[in-house]
Write a structure and sequence with these properties.
By secondary structure, the chain is an alpha+beta fold. It is built from 5 helices and 5 strands, in the order H-E-H-E-E-H-H-E-H-E. It is 43% helix and 20% strand.
Length: 175
């Protein structure tokens, strides 16, 4: 009986603490202005070996105390792929990061070795740069209106209406 009387106040306390914590969490800022996207196609049956090499990249950047982080993802259906997203505040920040790696010989050497190992487990790789399009994203601030250009299909416009928190990026043209 005593346990029952203690359980309800404990649950209420936990809910209150969770609500207060959520209320203190700041609203998310705009997403990064530039995303570098690596899309790797992995050979069948080589996922575990590929993942081992990818851990080496994390260790190399950690050892170098590199300030730029990234998010890695792997497919759970369809073709065997690994995607890596690297956020930047601007193209200038992207270029500074790239030049920083080049000016750090130990890190560059380690990344080159890892790239060679990683190549044994890939059938292809594609690197893209994408720019955040606030004007057609669902996170427009109150009072702002987005503009959907004619090149976007009606399906995209309908999806945007149904997903108000949709962040939209446009792949930057390459050379």
């Amino acid at each position: 009986m005593k346990t029952r009387y203690l359980l309800l106040p404990t649950i209420c306390l936990l809910i209150t603490v969770a609500a207060l914590t959520a209320a203190q969490t700041p609203a998310p800022a705009d997403p990064p202005a530039v995303l570098q996207i690596f899309r790797e196609e992995i050979k069948q049956g080589k996922n575990a070996l590929h993942e081992t090499v990818e851990v080496g990249y994390v260790q190399a950047f950690t050892k170098a105390k590199w300030p730029t982080g990234y998010l890695g993802m792997t497919s759970v259906s369809g073709t065997n792929e690994a995607w890596f997203l690297v956020p930047f505040d601007s193209f200038a920040a992207f270029e500074k990061d790239r030049q920083g790696v080049e000016k750090t010989p130990a890190l560059q050497r380690q990344l080159d070795q890892l790239d060679q190992q990683d190549g044994e487990f890939r059938t292809g790789v594609r690197v893209l740069l994408a720019v955040y399009r606030k004007d057609i994203s669902g996170r427009a601030r109150k009072g702002e209106r987005g503009c959907v250009r004619g090149s976007l299909s009606g399906d995209f416009r309908r999806a945007k209406r149904n997903l108000p928190d949709l962040y939209t990026y446009e792949v930057a043209p390459g050379d």
